[in-house]
């Protein structure tokens, strides 16, 4: 059957319907409220069950898996546009949190590759890149899983898309469940400074519906709707950057056949170019950061629900055992990092800041924000602000780890081993820096905090 524009409308409408059902269930079902389950995740599971992978009731088009690749380009294109530069004041005392955030990022990549090449490949015939699944899904989330999965599709490893998105889904769910368990443990041990019980979480956070008296504007109107609607204005900027990334990727590949730069990387680059032009021409005052974040958030929700709904369960079944081992050890790694590193790398509010990083390292920043809000409802610990700063600082490292390992591992031979050793070396160097500059003081609490 020929794919038409009406098929796009049909797919998006079904995804939107599933998202609304997910929000309805979150608002009504106590279990989902206690689990802090995002509506996109609930809707994604409904789409998986009712879609082509299981019951095949919903009339999705054959292009459902392709939407994620476009949406991730929009997400990355929005990232720098309208953002403020980091100030010197914000950089003060950020070292410990930078190590928390960046250290677990590199360690997940290194640990996953060591586990896969050193152990799992002895029992199962796995692709050399299987070890990347841990960090791709846990730290990276669905966006990274889609981006890297698209890279591997071009390299002939189609299964990575489904495996990566499974990792992201498990990471997100497990991050919330284990995070809540850690919070319950922490409150009993009196590690928390601002709440004595997670039951104190506001109803609007639990249900996902904000009462009228607490509702806030989603953004500012920066251009007159007599000439152009403000949302269309901002969306146009994002789409230009995303499509420029697609054109640049295609152009580069046409000139250098062996070089396939992912669209999302170049979309991010053009986002920075647009932001530079806006600042130089002093037109950045007409771009509202909140509106760009809403566009990015909308694209992310659609990305998550479409990626889960289009999962190939056969691929997951074929790799169930090595996936299960990877996921369990991945959670153990993140919990260990929370207890051994987060505890000794913050000068104040270590638990509140550490649980933010724990959630962030199991999927998305939103998970960290949810867990942080449970123990720090008034945002006194600066966990959210410092996460934003460190994410900006380590973004080049994160992008490099998303792009370079697949390229090098794809060369075959001993390159997978060399890539793994390079990751291990990077983690060791960063840890040495953390010890030298006392970002991390193992066994010794920072500030006036008590064990």
UniProtKB/TrEMBL annotation:
Pfam families found in the cross-reference section: Glt_symporter
Keyword check for Oxidoreductase: no
Keyword NADP: no
Transmembrane segments: 6-25, 37-58, 64-82, 103-124, 168-187, 222-244, 256-278, 322-341, 417-441
Keyword line: Membrane, Transmembrane, Transmembrane helix
Lineage top rank: taxon: Bacteria
Protein name as annotated: ESS family glutamate:Na+ symporter
The species this protein was found in: Peptoniphilus stercorisuis
């Amino acid at each position: 059957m020929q794919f038409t524009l009406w098929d796009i409308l049909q797919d998006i409408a079904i995804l939107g319907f599933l998202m609304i059902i997910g929000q309805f269930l979150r608002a009504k079902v106590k279990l989902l409220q206690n689990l802090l389950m995002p509506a996109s995740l609930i809707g994604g599971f409904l789409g998986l069950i009712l879609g082509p992978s299981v019951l095949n009731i919903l009339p999705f088009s054959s292009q459902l898996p392709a939407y994620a690749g476009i949406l991730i380009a929009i997400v990355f294109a929005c990232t720098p546009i309208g953002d403020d530069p980091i100030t010197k004041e914000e950089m003060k005392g950020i070292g410990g949190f930078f190590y928390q955030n960046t250290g677990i990022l590199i360690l997940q990549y290194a640990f996953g590759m060591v586990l896969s090449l050193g152990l799992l490949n002895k029992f199962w015939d796995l692709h050399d890149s299987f070890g990347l699944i841990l960090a791709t899904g846990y730290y990276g989330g669905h966006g990274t899983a889609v981006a890297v999965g698209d890279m591997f599709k071009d390299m002939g490893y189609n299964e990575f898309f489904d495996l990566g998105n499974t990792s992201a889904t498990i990471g997100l769910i497990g991050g919330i469940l284990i995070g809540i368990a850690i919070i319950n443990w922490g409150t009993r041990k009196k590690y928390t400074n601002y709440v004595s019980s997670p039951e104190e979480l506001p109803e609007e956070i639990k249900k996902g519906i904000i009462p009228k008296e607490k509702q806030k504007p989603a953004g500012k109107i920066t251009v007159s709707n007599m000439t152009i609607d403000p949302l269309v204005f901002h969306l146009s900027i994002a789409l230009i950057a995303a499509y420029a990334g697609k054109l640049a990727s295609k152009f580069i590949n046409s000139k250098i056949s062996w070089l396939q730069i992912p669209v999302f990387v170049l979309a991010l680059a053009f986002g920075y170019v647009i932001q530079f032009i806006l600042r130089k021409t002093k037109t950045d005052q007409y771009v509202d950061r909140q509106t760009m974040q809403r566009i990015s958030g909308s694209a992310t929700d659609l990305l998550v629900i479409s990626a889960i709904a289009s999962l190939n369960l056969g691929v997951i079944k074929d790799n169930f055992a090595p996936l299960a081992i990877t996921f369990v050890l991945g959670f153990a790694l993140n919990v260990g990092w929370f207890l051994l590193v987060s505890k000794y790398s913050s000068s104040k509010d270590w638990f509140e800041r550490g649980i933010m990083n724990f959630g962030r390292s199991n999927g998305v920043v939103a998970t960290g924000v949810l867990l942080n809000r449970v123990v720090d409802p008034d945002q006194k610990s600066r966990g959210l602000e410092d996460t934003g700063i460190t994410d900006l600082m380590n973004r080049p490292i994160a992008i490099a780890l998303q792009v370079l390992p697949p390229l090098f591992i794809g060369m075959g031979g001993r390159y997978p081993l060399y890539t793994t050793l390079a990751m291990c070396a990077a983690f060791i160097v960063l840890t040495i820096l953390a010890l030298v500059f006392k970002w991390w003081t193992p066994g010794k609490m920072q500030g006036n905090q008590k064990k």
